[in-house]
Amino acid sequence: MATSAVSSVAALGITARSTTDRGLLRAFLERDRLFAAYALCDLDMREFARTHWGVALVDDEPIAVVLEYAGYAPQPVFAMGENAGIAAVLRDVVRTHAAYAAVLPANLPALEACYRVETGPQMVRMWIDRASFRPFPADVARLLPVEIGDLNRLYRLGFTAWLPPSAIAEGAYYGIRVAGRLVAAAGTHVVSPEARLGVVGNVMTHADFRGRGYATAVTGAVTAELLRFCDQVVLNVRADNSPALQAYRKLGYREHVRFEERLVHRRSGGGWVRSLTAPFRRLLGRGTGGAR
C-alpha cells in the first residue's frame, strides 16, 4: 500500500494514514456501494488523480475511509465508517479548510469535532436498476458538446454551474426544447465502467415550464442510457423536495438512505479526539493502554 502522512491515535489503537490502495478502498466502499457510489466512481483512473484518500485501521483492518476530491471550492469530502476512525483521519490526514461533507447522520459527531457544521436539510440517496426502471416516453434529445452554451444558460437560472463542453462529451446529457429553447435538462455527475455505477445529476427545468413532467422525462433518458452498461444508477435529492421525489419514483427510483450533505469549516482546537472517541474505545475492545 502506498501511504504517507502516517499518524497514530495510540490510546485507541487506531492508525490513520493516506493511501492510494484502490483495492483496499474498493473493498471497504463496497460494503455500501449505493451510499458510496460517488467514491467508488472516483476510483476509476480518470478521476483518481483528483482524489486524496485517508483510511483508519485497527490491527490493519480498515474501520473508516475519508475521500477529499480536488477541483472544486469548497471541496467535496465523503466519509464512511466508524466515528473514531473518521475523527482520526480528519484530524491528521484530510485537513480541508472548507468542504461540502457527505456523511450518514450517525457520523455527524466526527465532523463536528473538527468542523463547524452548517445546518441544512437531509438528502435522500435514491437508486434504480434495470428491473425497477420504468421508461417515461417523451420527446427528449441527447445534447451535443456544441450545445454547452444553451445548457449553461439554463443552469445559471437555478444554481451555480458552468460546465465545459467535455462534460457533455464524457457524460450523458439529455434535454427538452420548446420553440427551439432548451427548457429542461439532466446529465451525469460521474460514471464508472469499472464499478458499473452511474450518478445522475444537474437536473433542471426552467421555472416557466415546471409541472409538465419534463424533469421526469430528461432524468429517465439519462437513466436509460446509463443502465445500458451500469448495474445501478443513483441520484441525490433534498428530503424536502416532494415534487422531485415523486418524479424520480415514477421512473422506479427507490430510497436507499438519508444522509447529511453539509458545508463545513475547519475548527482550531486540541484534545478533541479523546472526548469524541471515548465511547468507541469500548466498542473497539480497547482500554486506555491499548489492551484488548
Provide structural commentary.
This protein is α+β, with helices and mostly antiparallel strands and 292 residues long. It has 2 domains: 7-122 and 260-283, Aminopeptidase (3-Layer(aba) Sandwich), CATH 3.40.630; 133-252, Aminopeptidase (3-Layer(aba) Sandwich), CATH 3.40.630.30. Helix content is 28%, strand content 33%. It is built from 10 helices and 14 strands. Strands 1, 2, 3, 4, 5, 6, 7, 8, 9, 10, 11, 12, 13 and 14 form a 14-stranded mixed beta sheet that branches. A hairpin with a 4-residue loop joins β11 and β12. Mean pLDDT is 87; it is low at 1-11 and 270-292.
Mean residue pLDDT: 87
Estimate nothing, just give the exact number of structural domains: 2
| Number of helical segments with 4 or more residues | 10
Q: Percent range for helical residues?
A: 25-40%
CATH architecture annotation of the largest domain: 3-Layer(aba) Sandwich
Tell me which oligomeric state these chains represent: single chain
Query: Could you name the ranges where pLDDT drops below 50 across 5 or more consecutive residues?
Result: 1-11, 270-292
Written as H for each helix and E for each strand, in order along the chain, the element string is EEHHHEEEHEHEEEHHEEEHEHEH
Principal-axis shape equals: elongated
The largest sheet, given as strand count, sense and whether it forms a barrel, is:
14 strands, mixed
Quote the beta fraction.
25-35%
